[in-house]
Amino acid sequence: MNGSSTDTRQTALWSAVIVVLVAIAGGLYFWLARAPEEAAPVSEPSAPAPAAPAEPQIRHPIEKARPEPAERPKPLPPLAESDGAVHEAASGLIGKDVFEKYFYPKEIVRRFIVTIDNLPRKKLPQRYGLAKPVEGKFLAAGKSGNMTIAPNNYRRYAPYVRLADAVDTKRLVALYVYFYPLLQEEYQNLGQPNRYFNDRVVEVIDDLLAAPEPKGPILLAQPKVMYEFADPALEELSAGQKIMIRMGPENAARIKAKLKEIREALVSGAGN
Questions:
Q1: Domains in the chain: boundaries
Q2: In what order do the strands lie in the sheet with 140-141?
Q3: What letter would DSSP give residue 157?
Q4: Which residues neighbour 160 within 8 Å (Cβ) at sequence distance 6 or greater?
Q5: Could you give the angle at the alpha carbon of 164 between the alpha carbons of 63 and 135, nearest 5°?
Q6: Cα(109)–Cα(86) distance, rounded to whole angstroms?
Q7: Are 255 and 164 within 8 A, CB to CB?
Q8: Phi-psi domain of 56 (left: phi exceeds 0; alpha: psi -120 through 50; beta: other)
C-alpha cells in the first residue's frame, strides 16, 4: 500500500459505506406510497409463453426493508439516465457541494455495484471507484523492521466517518429500497443474472463486521514500493477487512456501528 494505491482502496470503503449511506438516503422525498395497480384483463394465451429467466434465490428480500408508503412514488428513471436522480437525492441529504467534493457524479449505480461486489474479494478494481481520493498522503511511522501505520494517518478519514455518522439510517434504507430496481438491474448486467443484490449487500456488511480488531500499532512491511501488513494473517484478509484495519480502531468502530444499524434495517425492517 503506497500512498496513492492505499488511498484508492480506502476510498472504496467510503463508496460502500457512505454511498450505501448517501446515495441511498438523500432521496427519501422520492419515496411516496405506491398506488394500487389496476388488474389486467384476463385472456387465454394463444400459444405457450416463452420460459422466463430463472429467478435469483433470495435470502433477504428487499420487501422486509420497504417503508410504509404514504403517497404515489415518483417513477424511477431508466438506468442509463439515473445519475441525475441519484445525484439530486444525495445532494438533498448532505448538500450539493459536499457530494461533489467527495464523490464522482457519473455512472453512480455502476460504481456502487462494482465497489460493493468486490469488497469481500482479495483485491478491489481501481476502475469505477465512486469516492474521490482521500486528501493527503498515506502516513507510515518508524523504520524498516519496525514500521507502523502512523496514528496521524487515521485522522485523514475523520470527515468521512463524521459524514457516515450523520446519515439517518431510516432515510438511508428508504432510498436504497427506492433505487433498488436499478441496483438489481445493473448487478445482473455486470454478470450476476441469478443473484440478488440485497443478499450481496448483507454478505458484504457481514464481512466488514467480521474484520479483526488488532490491539496496538499495526506493523507494516515494504518488500517493494507498496506497503503490506507484516502479519501474514492480516495480509490474507479480504480487501474490505484490510481497509477496516487501515482506517484505525476508533474509525472502524464507528463505521461498524453504522453498518450494524443498516444490516438490521435491511434484514428485519427495523428502519421502518
A1: 3-33+58-268
A2: 140-141, 147-149, 219-221, 228-229
A3: G
A4: 14, 17, 18, 102, 131, 134
A5: 135
A6: 8
A7: yes
A8: beta
Query: Amino acid letter at 159?
Result: P
Of 71, 73, 79, 99, the C-alpha closest to 181 is 79
Mean pLDDT of the chain: 79
Distance separating alpha carbons of residues 40 and 152, to the nearest angstrom: 63
Amino acid identity of residue 140, one-letter, is A
Single pTM value for the model: 0.80
Residue 125 has φ and ψ, to the nearest 5°, of -70, 140
Query: Count H helices, E strands: the chain?
Result: 12, 4
| 198 neighbors 266 (Cβ within 8 angstroms) | yes
**Which of the pair, 30 or 158, is modelled with greater confidence?**
158
For residue 74, give the C-alpha cell. Answer: 415518483
Q: Which tens digit of pLDDT belongs to each residue from 241-270?
A: 998 998 899 999 999 999 999 999 999 876
Give, for 219, the enclosing helix (H) or strand (E).
strand 219-221
Residues 6+ apart with CB under 8 A from 258: 17, 21, 164, 165, 167, 169
Q: Is-contact 177 169, C-beta < 8 A?
A: no
Give the whole-angstrom CA distance, residue 223 versus residue 239.
Answer: 19
Question: Crossing angle for the helix pair 197-209 and 108-118, nearest 10 degrees?
Answer: 50
Are 144 and 152 spatial neighbours (Cβ–Cβ below 8 Å)?
A: no
The enclosing H or E element of 141 equals strand 140-141
pLDDT tens profile 5-60: 555 444 455 444 554 444 333 333 222 222 223 333 333 333 444 445 567 789 99
